[in-house]
């Protein structure tokens, strides 16, 4: 399976035609602690998504349900994954899309290279970007939603505090269901071509 930028952005399958998801490369965490490497702060983080990506959808859903819309800004790439990867477009060109008003990138790949100039894997969404450190915090949707679930509780509006979509007593059941959803639903989008 080709994962390098030069190997083709849309080559997401092995020689036998099987789809294989790459392991996410950026795995840091936003935390509630003010002394954390990535502390929860209003206006500090930016989410890059595609409406065509089920992985990105879940970050948008949790952002909405936790009342984080005024704290975490969003850019939406073109719904069609092109030969150069996810592209930013104006809403006039592509309804629902946005330009990248944080980094001024034309393609999401430029955001990855800004964070890691030697990056050589696929350029995926969602991406959680730190506007202060000018780097990617995470490109793993399951970890981004867990951050959004609890890390910002001290600074969100009171009616959203304590809403927990991953309660301790249900974690095992959630993880079991998520394993099924991961392979058959979210990856199913990509397996079908």
Describe this structure in words.
The protein is α+β, with helices and mostly antiparallel strands and 193 residues long. The protein is 26% helix and 9% strand. The chain contains 4 helices and 4 strands; from the N terminus they run βαβαββαα. The protein has helices spanning 54-65, 108-115, 141-150, 171-191; strands at residues 45-49, 72-76, 127-130, 135-138. It has a 4-stranded mixed sheet with strand order 2-1-3-4, with helices on both faces. A hairpin with a 4-residue loop joins strand 3 and strand 4 (135-138). Helix 1 (54-65) packs parallel to helix 3 (141-150). The longest helix is centred in the C-terminal third of the chain and has 21 residues, at 171-191. 31% of the residues are buried. Residues 1-7 have low confidence and may be disordered.
Give the SSE layout:
Layout: E1 45-49, H1 54-65, E2 72-76, H2 108-115, E3 127-130, E4 135-138, H3 141-150, H4 171-191
Helix pairs in contact: 1-3
Concise summary:
By secondary structure, the protein is of the alpha+beta class. Helices cover 26% and strands 9% of the residues.
Name the helicity range.
25-40%
**Proportion of β residues?**
5-15%
Q: What is the overall shape?
A: globular
**Distance N to C terminus:** 15 Å
Number of helices: 4
Features:
193 residues; alpha+beta; 4 helices; 26% helix; globular
